[in-house]
């Protein structure tokens, strides 16, 4: 048998097995992994060659790839799923025992779905049931990119996919990017399911049958409900109460609610409110509950009736039935109820959230109190066109499943209505730990997002710790926004605020924003603060309250700020020394420090800082040779500084060679990492630096702390032979990270945009 033959092959000595591995197909190479490990043979070179031969591209950040087996199989899965790789193109892939999606799926931890979501349709097909089960255990990051509007069948496949991978799977991060004109319904559908919400009445089906995992949960819940009902029945009988007299009691209503929202999902129950004979209850609200006519194409998404008491509460929308019946029932059940559901989460007024939910991961929604029935919907402009009922449906009818911990939205415009919906989801998203909002055109809508996060922060089980906001325009000064965020979210550990340009309507003088100096900030847990100013002046006086409230701050990054006066940087250093005793990392990027040599030296002397970055700060623009010597001598005396990053400061060859003296025999420096990327370094200068470094190592008996050197975007392509020799000798001393940068093309690009 094949298994017996494989056992004989895997038992070969290591040197024979090493020669055999390149001759195996992917199927057998994967099966040989354990045998190779036992024999002490690495399969990494084979997988790397497979990548080069099959993918024919250089992967980004290839130097950081630790497992080429996983990298290959994960990319292979994605390429096959999206139809961009033909398995017959290489003999190592064309094996009759090899099922491309099935055998590679256990290695997929990150998956991207694009365009019309063809990948979602493929993965939820009957033939790929086992593939989907594998992904439910392995997938951690689910990305959506360049999405387009899709039809009902595709949306149904997406619902099933999200339900399996998020609600009953291991996905912990959902990312969406590059969606210039988002389909609002599809967007909020993904957001809602990522937050763990979906219709209590939706029979999420798996290839024509109800979800087995939901069925098991519902069976346990129904047994518990039946047990409680039996106990209540015994108590009622002992009290002499008849069933008829208790028909409308609160206890009976509660029992019915439990049966509806927690009971079994199969078989589907017909909702009489949707019958055409009914003249009082509009179809809009029956659709909200997930109900539809038996003739509906989405009847698989319907399983629970609506209690009559609930239907009477929804009566304010009466009068829309005639318009509803003129629509296609199939289209209405799949589209209109989705509108009604997703915009239920957009129930917020300007003063704050009215809807609050207390939920725990994997548990049903318990304490959601919506605004009164009949109140106008403020969350969706389209509600008026459909009679204004979208905001009436109670989210108590939405069941809560497992939710993700990281949400990222890149280059997706978020309207006011979408921000309201997201805000309401955020208010109860207790599993959320990281939120990234990048280039969403938020402007003043950021206040709506903060409103939801503020409500979330009050929840006892809140885990939210990281917020990153970046956009083209800032609607208020960066420091003022930082203060607003920290006032609302004192438990944050990481805050990043980044803007490209100032809003043209905003005044240029900070004095025009009095709230900057008036708002009080509670003591925060902030450890990392990153601010990218849209060429705003850095006023230390306005940053002072933030720093005072952030005694735990360990990392501070200031990007693209201007210094309004020569004394400003010195004042900032004094404040940092006084207010942030735990600061370990300080970074300046694109801040002109050419005239602040004294402050630069003071920073390099700071005994508390372990990492300092001066990136594109024009350090040596107007400096003398004495300034470079002072930098070297200061670093030599600092035994606590571990990392010095100097990219983009025009070091050139002679300054790079001088930096080698940091590791001379008389140095007490503990510097481990040096970054000299984008510094006009040529191969001969790098070789001279290497020789000088080797001399210092020899003088110190072969021991120096230096371990990492970064050389990105330097002019090493001008003499390939000299560069290779320098890199070869350097790699014997430390880990070197560089790239194959074309300096001539980069210079041409620079000239073309001047």
Describe it.
The structure is a single chain. This protein has 754 residues and is an alpha/beta fold. Among the domains are: 1-107, no CATH class; 109-198 and 400-464, Ribonuclease Inhibitor (Leucine-rich repeat, LRR (right-handed beta-alpha superhelix)); 584-753, Ribonuclease Inhibitor (Leucine-rich repeat, LRR (right-handed beta-alpha superhelix), Alpha-Beta Horseshoe), CATH 3.80.10.10. It is built from 29 helices and 21 strands. The strands form four sheets. A 15-stranded parallel sheet has the order 1-2-3-10-11-12-13-14-15-16-17-18-19-20-21. It has a two-stranded antiparallel sheet with strand order 4-9. The protein has a two-stranded antiparallel ribbon with strand order 5-6. It starts with a helix and ends with a helix.
Task: Name the descriptors.
754 residues; alpha/beta; 21 strands; Leucine-rich repeat, LRR (right-handed beta-alpha superhelix); 29 helices
In short:
The protein is an alpha/beta fold and 754 residues long. Helix content is 40%, strand content 12%.
């Amino acid at each position: 048998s094949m298994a017996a033959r494989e056992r004989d092959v895997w038992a070969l000595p290591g040197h024979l097995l090493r020669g055999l591995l390149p001759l195996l197909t992917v199927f057998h190479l994967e099966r040989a992994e354990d045998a190779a490990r036992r024999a002490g043979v690495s399969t990494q070179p084979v997988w790397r060659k497979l990548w080069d031969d099959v993918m024919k591209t250089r992967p980004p950040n290839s130097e950081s790839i630790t497992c080429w087996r996983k990298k290959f199989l994960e990319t292979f899965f994605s390429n096959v799923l999206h139809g961009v790789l033909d398995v017959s193109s290489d003999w190592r892939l064309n094996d009759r025992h090899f099922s491309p999606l099935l055998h590679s799926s256990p290695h997929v931890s990150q998956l991207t779905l694009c365009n019309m979501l063809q990948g979602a349709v493929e993965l939820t097909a009957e033939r790929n049931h086992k593939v989907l089960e594998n992904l439910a255990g392995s997938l951690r990051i689910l990305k959506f990119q360049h999405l387009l509007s899709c039809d009902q069948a595709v949306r149904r496949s997406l619902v099933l996919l999200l339900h399996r991978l998020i609600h009953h799977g291991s996905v912990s991060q959902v990312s969406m990017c590059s969606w210039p004109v988002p389909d609002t319904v599809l967007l909020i559908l993904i957001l809602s399911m990522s937050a763990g919400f979906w219709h209590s009445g939706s029979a999420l089906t798996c290839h024509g049958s109800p979800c087995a995992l939901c069925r098991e949960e519902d069976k346990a819940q129904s047994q518990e409900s039946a047990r409680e009902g039996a106990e209540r029945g015994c108590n009622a009988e002992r009290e002499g109460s008849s069933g008829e007299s208790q028909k409308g009691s609160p206890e009976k209503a509660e029992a019915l609610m439990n049966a509806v929202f927690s009971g079994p999902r199969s078989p589907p129950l017909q909702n009489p409110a949707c019958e055409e004979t009914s003249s009082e209850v509009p179809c809009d609200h029956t659709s909200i509950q997930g109900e539809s006519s038996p003739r509906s194409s989405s009847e698989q998404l319907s399983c629970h009736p609506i209690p009559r008491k609930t239907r009477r509460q929804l009566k304010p929308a009466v009068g829309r039935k005639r318009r509803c019946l003129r629509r296609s029932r199939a289209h209405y059940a799949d589209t209109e109820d989705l509108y009604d559901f997703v915009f239920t989460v957009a129930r917020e007024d300007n003063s704050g959230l009215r809807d609050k939910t207390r939920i725990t991961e994997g548990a049903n929604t318990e304490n959601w109190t919506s605004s009164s029935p009949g109140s106008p919907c403020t969350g969706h402009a389209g509600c008026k066109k459909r009679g204004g009922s979208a905001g009436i449906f109670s989210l108590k009818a939405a069941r809560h499943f497992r939710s993700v911990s990281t949400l990222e939205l890149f280059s997706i415009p978020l309207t006011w209505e979408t921000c309201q919906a997201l805000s309401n989801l955020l208010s109860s998203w207790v599993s959320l730990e990281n939120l990234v909002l990048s280039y969403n055109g938020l402007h003043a809508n950021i206040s709506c997002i903060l409103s939801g996060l503020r409500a979330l922060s009050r929840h006892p089980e809140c885990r939210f710790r990281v917020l990153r906001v970046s956009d083209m325009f800032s609607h208020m000064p960066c420091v003022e926004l930082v203060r607003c965020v920290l006032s609302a979210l004192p438990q944050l550990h990481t805050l990043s605020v980044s803007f490209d340009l100032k809003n043209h309507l905003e005044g240029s003088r900070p004095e025009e924003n009095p709230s900057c100096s008036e708002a009080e900030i509670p003591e925060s847990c902030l450890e990392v603060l990153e601010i990218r100013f849209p060429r705003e002046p850095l006023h230390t006086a306005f940053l002072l309250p933030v720093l005072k409230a952030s005694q735990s701050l360990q990392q501070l990054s200031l990007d693209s700020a201007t210094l309004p006066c020569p004394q400003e940087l010195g004042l900032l250093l004094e404040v940092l020394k006084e207010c942030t005793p735990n600061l370990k990392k300080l970074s300046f990027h694109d801040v002109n420090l050419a005239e602040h040599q004294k402050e630069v030296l003071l920073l390099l002397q700071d005994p508390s800082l372990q990492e300092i970055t001066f990136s594109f700060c024009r350090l040596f623009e107007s400096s003398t040779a004495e300034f470079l010597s002072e930098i070297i001598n200061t670093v030599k005396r600092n035994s606590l500084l571990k990392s010095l990053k100097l990219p983009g400061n025009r070091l050139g060859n002679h300054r790079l060679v001088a930096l080698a003296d940091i590791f001379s025999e008389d140095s007490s420096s503990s510097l481990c990492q040096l970054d000299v990327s984008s510094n006009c370094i040529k191969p001969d200068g790098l070789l001279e630096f290497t020789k000088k470094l080797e001399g210092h190592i020899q003088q110190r008996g072969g021991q120096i702390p230096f371990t990492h050197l970064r050389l990105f975007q330097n002019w090493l392509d001008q003499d390939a032979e000299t560069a290779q020799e320098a890199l070869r000798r350097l790699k014997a001393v430390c880990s070197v990270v560089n790239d194959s940068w074309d300096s001539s093309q980069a210079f041409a690009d620079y000239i073309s945009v001047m």
